[in-house]
Write a structure and sequence with these properties.
Layout: H1 2-11, E1 23-28, E2 32-38, E3 47-53, E4 56-72, E5 77-93, E6 104-108, E7 111-117, E8 125-127
Antiparallel strand pairs: 1-2, 2-7, 3-4, 3-8, 4-5, 6-7
C-alpha cells in the first residue's frame, strides 16, 4: 500500500494552471487521506474543492486584485488602474476510493486542509469550506 501511494505521489503533476502552482502534501492516516495545500493570498471564498470521482480530489482557486493610483495636478490628472487575475487548479489522484459524504475541508491562514475518509463514492461532489 505504501509503495502504491509513493508511486502515485511521484505522478502528481499540477494540471490546468495559470499563474502559479499549488504545493500539496498527501498523508494516509489509515482510515482517511489528508491533503494539505499551501494557498497564500487566497480567501476561502476564492477556493472550490470537488471530488470528480471517488479517487480524485480537485482544488480550483481564482482571485482578482485591483490597484488604482491618481497622480497629477488640477490641469492634468493621470489615473492608472491595474487588474490582476490569478487562477490555479490541481487534480490529485488517490490510491483508494473515499467517502464523499463524509469529506470535509478547512481553510486557515492560507493553508487548505482536506479530510477524505476512505470508502466508496459516487458522482462529483462539492466539499464546503469551514
Amino acid at each position: 500500500m505504501f509503495d502504491q501511494l509513493s508511486r502515485q505521489i511521484g505522478e502528481f503533476e499540477p494540471q490546468g494552471e495559470t499563474g502559479g502552482t499549488i504545493a500539496i502534501d498527501v498523508a494516509d492516516t489509515g482510515d482517511a487521506f489528508e491533503v494539505t495545500a499551501d494557498m497564500p493570498s487566497f480567501e476561502s471564498d476564492d477556493i472550490q474543492v470537488t471530488l470528480p470521482d471517488a479517487r480524485t480530489v480537485r482544488i480550483d482557486a481564482s482571485r482578482t486584485s485591483e490597484t488604482e493610483t491618481e497622480e497629477g495636478d488640477d490641469e492634468m490628472r493621470y489615473i492608472r488602474q491595474e487588474r490582476r487575475e490569478q487562477s490555479i487548479s490541481r487534480s490529485i489522484p488517490l490510491p483508494e476510493d473515499v467517502d464523499e459524504a463524509e469529506a470535509s475541508a478547512d481553510f486557515d491562514n492560507g493553508v487548505l486542509t482536506i479530510h477524505l475518509p476512505k470508502m466508496t463514492g459516487g458522482d462529483s461532489t462539492n466539499i464546503p469550506l469551514s
